[in-house]
């Protein structure tokens, strides 16, 4: 955190915001959307947005949660790999299209939406949509202040909000 432009964890306003933000994230974490899918989606959006802090955090948390290094290494090339389920592929497609809104006039395509609906129930779809929105917001917060990746330890974000 030393190289950041601003210590978001040292500001009372930012800390209050992060506690509320983390509470919103708990809703997704406690949903029936598989934890592995949550980490893969968060990692993919963070890769697209160039957020080193979030890539570090979600890779570290996923590894601590038992995710395989092979799958994490292949998230950026998920279409060219054999290690993701059809449901995970649908979630990753949604993450990409929901993250790249400015790059495509259509936003999330009907074909991606149909795949998501095929593999996830209403509660999981709600969690997935909320997750894509949350991780994109988190990416922007970290990138704006140049929060660098490389020093994250499992549980560090939760501990900082103490």
From TrEMBL:
Pfam families on file: CMD
GO molecular function: peroxiredoxin activity
Stretches assigned to the Carboxymuconolactone decarboxylase-like domain: 17-97
SUPFAM superfamilies tied to this protein: AhpD-like
UniProtKB keywords: Oxidoreductase, Peroxidase
Protein name: Alkylhydroperoxidase AhpD family core domain-containing protein
Lineage: Bacteria, Bacillati, Actinomycetota, Actinomycetes, Micromonosporales
